[in-house]
Fold each of these.
Amino acid sequence: MATLQDLKRRVRSIRNTRKITRAMELVAAARLRRAQARIEAMRPYADRMLELMAGTARASASLRGLPLLQRREVRTAAIVPVTGDRGLAGAFNAQVLRRSFALERRLRDEGVQVRFAVVGRKGASTLRFRRYEVDDAWSGFGDRPSYADAQAVAHRLAELYVDGDVDRVVVVYNRFVSPLVQRVTEQELLPISEEILRRGEEEEQEERALRGDFIYEPEPEEILARLLPVYLETELYRALLESSASEQGARMTAMRSASKSAGELIDSLTLAMNRARQAEITQEILEVVAGADALNA
């Protein structure tokens, strides 16, 4: 049975741990608010980019010469799991990796070769621990991703696709719903679907009727060839922002749960410590009474 000093030492240690978890919860909450604000600020830009691409695509005579739109037989696919650089975030990293491994098994069953390009230190270390070959890895920007970080990832993935090294690129990330809910999402980045270019056609046609038609200079095909890589960068940037917000929400929830568990453990240990102290006092009283009875006898 633990002594009184052991119980005091454990209570002191758990209180110190609870201070750390509470501080991490507050830090994660502040970062989550900033991440949500960045997502809200980016959405109008992404929507406008999609509208501009759709209008340019409709004005183009042909889309066959654009390499990022070209579909071909899928022999090699690249999976891009977006994880964090640190742990202590509940199931945030594990659920992305589980979905990535399930996707890999599904693709291999279809006879498709799989390559991994991972974002985040946790994902890269897990893949290497399981003896997977990691072709590309990016890290160091999980808490606050910038557009330049998304550009670096997008340029490499576009290069792999245009050179024919991969025939399909799928990104797996946590989509932010709320601090308590993060949904794992699979999104096919490459090839870019032509259906995306047809979204919002009716709205864009109504707006064009009000503003008049456009004269394109240079040709629409050339403009679209420049817009498609920017669209790829924007989609990756959105995925990085969603993943960052999801990580902070998961960490905040995990640290709150840890603080609550620490409080419950402190209460139970305090109760055990009080019982041990009471038992010591009772034992001392019994020894004094027994000694007095022995002297009187």
Amino acid sequence: MKTIKFHKTECGVEVLLNVLNGKDVAQSYLDTNTYNTDYFEIVLFKQVTGHVILNQQKIDLDENSIVFISAFQKRRWKLNAENLDFTVLVFQENFLNDFFSDKLFTYRLLYFYQLAFPLSLKLTAGEIQKACEILTEIKTELIEARPDSVHIIRSLIYYLLQKFNRAYAQQYGLSLQRAENNYAYQFKMLVESNIHTMQRIENYAELMSVSRITINGAVKEQFNVTATQLLKQRLLFEIKNYLIHSGKTVAEIANELSFSEPNHLMRFFKTQTGLTTSAFLNDYQNGIFS
């Protein structure tokens, strides 16, 4: 599978961030093969018809919509080349976290590392237009850099990402309440990094030097699911990812994900989905996304 790498911009400001005009990168989005990138993308469509398979789900696209894609998420586009008008914001995660002096910044945005809700957002034509105007201003600061450009870019990016976060929360009925501590976000970050080897809450409690009860309380308050549910959700996603894209056997996947026996993986999968691994894969290959 192809991985597209981030290309550092030829701009006067030293940032791992760019704004891309759809006309310049259309070929990648018209490619119907599955691929991923080593950077995050926010794709703003003014005009589009088609869909994208992302996070193992089909997202139908139409005008004035946004798609949020985290680094290394596998996607397959099927877009109509006619009447296609879009803009893309791309950035590397570590850069953004450093840019805002917050290593958990991307985890605070509801639309990244999201498994429970679609990775898309519907806006009005006016809202999309305003967002694209802000992106144009950011692009101008990147190209025509001045001594204060980095500060202007920081403020514009922060404003835009938070506006998207508010709209996403409103569309899907999610909470924007500020957490009293970082335990929920830290837990989510650690799960992303350790899902292959750590599938018990106790493991994460030890890493974070807090109790299981503390983690559960923080996760429940912030994400409205228990820590166990979030962990199982992420593990299930990883199993599906292997089944769809790796070509590995169930026994090999079980070994990759530290299951002691393939039967344990199969039992976990059936409990979570109601399907066997072979039935799930057959459905997926026939365009049925569960």
